Model the fold of this input.
Amino acid sequence: MSGLVNALAILAVAVLVISRQFRTRRISADRRWWLVPAILAFLALREPGLIDSHHEVMAILLLGTELLIGLATGAGWAWTTRLWTEADGTLWSRSTKASVVVWGLGIGLRAGLFGCGLLLGVHQDSSALLLGLAITLLVRSGVLLWRSQSLNPAADRSPAYGDGVAQASGDGVARAAWKEAV
Done:
């Protein structure tokens, strides 16, 4: 893809993802949480201009820094997102004002990084930004999934032997079946 198409794809994904996260959303244990970041990473890695061949060391350092910024932004975004459980057991999330600050810092750091690359004469393709966005989304989704499991630990648990079975005791009173603690 050309740089303009990459830039438009990055902008479209960012606007879609950010706008969706500032609305209250139900969290599901969807096993495809990594799919969008994987597609973005594939699109970024298939481009040949990810590393400037004339300034390889600096280009690799800038790319590594971009990935670290993406990692920090994703983790910060996930930790500033509010999670709660409704009475019916469903999990919900909504980004907070602190999430806006995290996004602002991430964008500011990325702009500063791009400026450093310009000053150093390193050609930076939009693929690095796309890869950074993929890392951000992957880390955020993973941390949110991990956090949501601590809120609803029994959601995916199947019934154990004896759950809900009443047993009669010697005095004629029905009591819940005894379960061995492991």
